[in-house]
Amino acid sequence: MTDLSLRNLPGGLPDKRQVAASFSRAAASYDSVAELQRDVGSQLLHRLPTDFAPQRWLDLGCGTGYFSRALNQCFPASHGVALDIAEGMLNHARPLGGATHFIAGDAERLPLQDATCDLIFSSLAVQWCADFASVLREAHRVLKPGGIFAFASLCVGTLVELRDSWRQVDGLVHVNRFREFAKYEQLCAASGLQVVSLQNRAHVLHYPDVRSLTHELKALGAHNINPGRPGGLTGRARILGLVEAYEQFRQARGLPATYQVVYAVMEKPL
């Protein structure tokens, strides 16, 4: 049911086994530092049609199940499926409930039958999928006519301050890569799903120091898992160089970390 095969990923995206392993390790710490994730998912929920009442939903990339539980509260008469590629996340989410079924699976090859879901909800998960066209095809296949695919993802410009600071230090790959927003526009337009809304919005978090940011990324499982990342421990001189470079971005509220978030609501035609 779960495809974790290695791939040559376009744009240097991490392979799925590394993604699954990284997020599995982060399951216990994830919710304690997931301010952005809760904010983005909540905004995505509010973008659903006001009169929408799905009978069966899929939380695609459910993580710790925070939004599986939220969906269950929003639609108490519905049945839900929580799916994630990271077994560690599912093991954490399952005892907390919210969904009828918890399934290990891949967004590019969903282990679900055709036309079985009224809603596919996916918050900050599909940015890790190398073949987003396959994600859209699978969403189209699994949705019932009139069903909704609502997703939030990340695009180029995310963590630009951290990327630029590292570039001043050694020029190596230290920050995860993401698609261009224009690529999301292109793929969504060609998906066969009707684009109800598709927007790019910046979310900026602030930190007292660089260590606080990098600790949070590690606790989320979203630290650097790119091909070409430097191996071994990062030397003290490079860390000091990073701190000095990042200080150039300091604002009154602290060191900014910008996330470029893609919000989309798409409908399968009747």
From TrEMBL:
<dbReference type="InterPro" id="IPR013216">
    <property type="entry name" value="Methyltransf_11"/>
</dbReference>
<keyword id="KW-0949">S-adenosyl-L-methionine</keyword>
<comment type="pathway">
    <text>Cofactor biosynthesis; biotin biosynthesis.</text>
</comment>
<feature type="domain" description="Methyltransferase type 11">
    <location>
        <begin position="58"/>
        <end position="151"/>
    </location>
</feature>
<dbReference type="GO" id="GO:0010340">
    <property type="term" value="F:carboxyl-O-methyltransferase activity"/>
</dbReference>
<keyword id="KW-0489">Methyltransferase</keyword>
<keyword id="KW-0093">Biotin biosynthesis</keyword>
<dbReference type="Pfam" id="PF08241">
    <property type="entry name" value="Methyltransf_11"/>
</dbReference>
<dbReference type="InterPro" id="IPR011814">
    <property type="entry name" value="BioC"/>
</dbReference>
<dbReference type="InterPro" id="IPR050602">
    <property type="entry name" value="Malonyl-ACP_OMT"/>
</dbReference>
<keyword id="KW-0808">Transferase</keyword>
<dbReference type="GO" id="GO:0102130">
    <property type="term" value="F:malonyl-CoA methyltransferase activity"/>
</dbReference>
<comment type="similarity">
    <text>Belongs to the methyltransferase superfamily.</text>
</comment>
<protein>
    <recommendedName>
        <fullName>Malonyl-[acyl-carrier protein] O-methyltransferase</fullName>
        <ecNumber>2.1.1.197</ecNumber>
    </recommendedName>
</protein>
<dbReference type="GO" id="GO:0008757">
    <property type="term" value="F:S-adenosylmethionine-dependent methyltransferase activity"/>
</dbReference>
<dbReference type="GO" id="GO:0009102">
    <property type="term" value="P:biotin biosynthetic process"/>
</dbReference>
<dbReference type="InterPro" id="IPR029063">
    <property type="entry name" value="SAM-dependent_MTases_sf"/>
</dbReference>
<comment type="function">
    <text>Converts the free carboxyl group of a malonyl-thioester to its methyl ester by transfer of a methyl group from S-adenosyl-L-methionine (SAM). It allows to synthesize pimeloyl-ACP via the fatty acid synthetic pathway.</text>
</comment>
<dbReference type="GO" id="GO:0032259">
    <property type="term" value="P:methylation"/>
</dbReference>
